Amino acid sequence: MWFSVFTNHKFISSIVIKKKIYLSPPHLGLKEISYVNDAFEKNWITTSGENLDTFEKNLCQLSGASHCLAVNSGTAAIHLALILLGVQKDDEVLCSSFTFIASANPIVYLGATPIFIDSEVDTWNMSPLLLETAIKDRIKKGKKPKAIILVHLFGQPAKLGEILKLATEYDIPIIEDAAESLGSTYEGKMTGSFGTLGIYSFNGNKIITTSGGGALLAHDKKLIEKAKFLSTQSRDIAPYYQHSEIGYNYRMSNILAGIGIGQLEVLSERVKKKRAIFDFYKNNLQPTGKFIFLEELKDTYSNKWLTVILCNSEEPDHLRLKLEADNIESRPLWKPLHLQPIFKDSPSYKDGTAEKLFQKGLCLPSGTAMNEEDLERVIKILL
Ligand SMILES: *Cc1c(COP(=O)(O)O)cnc(C)c1O
Fold this sequence. Notes:
It is built from 14 helices and 14 strands. With 383 residues, the protein is α/β, with parallel strands linked by helices. It folds into two domains: 31-264, Aspartate Aminotransferase, domain 2; 267-382, Alpha-Beta Complex (Aspartate Aminotransferase, domain 1), CATH 3.90.1150.10.
């Protein structure tokens, strides 16, 4: 009978599509909803309220930065940071080349010029050597760069010691783009707390999320006070709406800050799980000799936001398609910004490192809600 065909267990299981494994989906804890409900109950559902105060206080405590402002994206935080450092039209800003484009876009919003710095092989982050070459060359060409945007990619802290030394020597402030490295430390201190300003992102794919959001951090109270003013349309102190400066609508909502409070409570668990996922992949895949994993440097601790493999022989894109055929999402590494069509005319200081990583690398599913069975499915295809 036709009916029995369709209820035949074997038949049905053979056509069932396997559960999708995403790269890094949101992973909520149990408490977020209660903080969100609290905002609803108190009717503080816009851009001020207790959740925001608590979220900012907790972020300061976690990061070690003295002051913090929650905003509506990591990109907005970078934009504000550049404004606070006085970056204007025709200024030059040094920026990691191996990163997501959001690191550099705000430079262009201000009419300034991004100058891209290639990676070094130990951390895949900004090369201190090329950074010094660039600083010297830009000064020789007549313009001292106004700021350095330093990214800690995939959660791995950059060579902060050497880079901070150069920043001090040449007196150029650092904006730490710690969008991907919340929870990562360098010499025991949180990334995001080293620069003159630091930023986090709480976009949906990051290690914790507020659905969308970001934060700006600093040790200097005045910088964060000014950022708050700019992020709320630069309203002068007056009984009416008066403005003496151009402002922005960049503040985070008190509802989303509620999600953030709950997510911060599970951050250390999430970091542990991300690291366990990395170890699982490494223990199973490295012995084959087909893949290379990024090793943590002494004195650094990575949140392992995404596990990345470098392929020795196989084409990463071939593997990506094989995974996709099994309903598993993987992704190429960030295409270096100096290779992006939109930045083809921007100056860059490079030695081919980021380009090689881009060609050889693949980001593996690293969602913290993955179970053993999910991980086994991934490695079975890669082995
Ligand atoms: C995600 C990300 C950003 C931007 O954050 P948004 O919150 O998405 O605006 C900036 N830099 C890096 C390196 C990122 O990964």
